Amino acid sequence: MASGGGNPPPEVHIRVHSRRGFNMIHPVEVESPLPTAAPAANESPNTVMYREVKHFKKWFPWLVPSFVLANVVVFIITMSVNNCPKNSVSCVAGFLGRFSFQPFKENPLLGPSSSALEKMGALDVGKVVQKHQGWRLITCMWLHGGVFHLLANMLSLLVIGIRLEQEFGFVRIGLLYLISGLGGSLLSALFIQSNISVGASGALFGLLGGMLSEVITNWTIYANKVAALVTLVIIIAINLSVGILPHVDNFAHLGGFFSGFLLGFVFLIRPQFGWVYQRYAPGYSSTSVKSKFKTYQCVFWILSLILLIVGFTVGLVMLLRGVDLNDHCSWCHYLSCVPTKRWSCNTQPASCQSEQTGNQYTLTCSNNGKSKTYSLLNPTARQIQGLCAQLC
C-alpha cells in the first residue's frame, strides 16, 4: 500500500459502556469529541482521539407501575361488588365489611366468589361464543382470584416490566403486554371451556417470552450470551412447571409466552454495532456496513409477524365457531394439570342438589357425592352457590 509523505491519520477508539444484568451493550449516541490542542513536543504524531458511545436512551418507567395500580384498583372494586357479608353465610376478615373475603374452602386465595369475578368480566367461553362477549378476552387480564394471586403477579410485573420499559419504552412494552395477554386468553378459551379464567399471568409470560427472543435476535450485543440464555430458559421452565398444578391455567401461560416470544422479534430488535459505528463514528470503520439490521434479524422479524397474524386469526375464528381443541388433542390437557395421588385435575364447576325442609337445607354435591345440612333463613341463590362451592 502506498504511503504519503504526511503523518498517518489519527486512530479513533470507541469506548462502549455495558449495563449490569446480562452485560448487554447499548450503543446509541456519540458525544461530541473534546477539542484537541496541538500535540505537545513529546507526544506521538499518531494522536489518539476517543469518542464515547453511550447507552440507548433509558426511558422513565411509568406504564408498568400504572398497570400495577390499575390491577389493584380493579381488585378493590371486585371485592366491593362481591360484598361477602350480603351474599355469603360466612366471611374471612369480616371487619373489612363488604371488602371481606370468601371462606377459605370456597376461595383459598383470599378473594371474591366466582360469580363476582364472572360479573366483573372473567373469561367465560360460553358467554364469549354464545353471547358475543369478546371483550372478556381482555377484561379477564385485569382480574385476580385473590390477594395472593394479585401479589404474586404484581411483584413479577414490577420486577420484569420496569426493566423492559426502561430499555425499550412504554409503547413497545405496553403493546407486548396487552397482545400477549390476549394470546394467553385466546389459547385458554380454546382448551378450558367449563370454568372461568382470570389473571395477568398470560401477559407476564409474554414479557418473559419477549425477553427470550430479545436475547436471541440481539445475540451479538450480549457480553455473556450463553449465561443470559440459560438463565432465562431456567426461569421460564420453572414458572411453566408450576402450571401443572390444579386450578392453574397453564394454557394462558403458554399462549402468552409464545405470543410474547414472537412479538419480541418484532418489537425488541436492536441495530447492529457496525451500523451504529458507521453512523456515529465514521472514522472507526474501515468497511462499509449498509444494513441497519443483520439478515437473521430481518428473517426472524418477517416470520414472527406472519406467524402472529396467522395464529391470532385462526385462533379467533376457531373460538367464535365454538371449537374445543381438547376434541382434537387427547393429551393436551396434561399441559395444564398432571394428576397425582395428592391432587385431582377434575375442575368441573361445582353443582349441588338442594332439598328444603323448613329452614333446613340439605345440599348434595354432584361432583363428589358429599352432603351437608344447613340451617338458613331465606337464603339467596348466591349464598347457596357459595355453600355448594365449599362443599364440593
TrEMBL record:
GO molecular function ontology, one term from the record: serine-type peptidase activity
Annotated family: Belongs to the peptidase S54 family.
Entry keyword annotation includes Membrane: yes
Organism: Abeliophyllum distichum
Record EC number: 3.4.21.105
Membrane topology of the entry: Multi-pass membrane protein
Gene Ontology cellular component terms for the protein in this record: Golgi apparatus; membrane
Residue span(s) of domain Peptidase S54 rhomboid: 132-268
EC category: hydrolase
Annotated protein name in UniProt: RHOMBOID-like protein
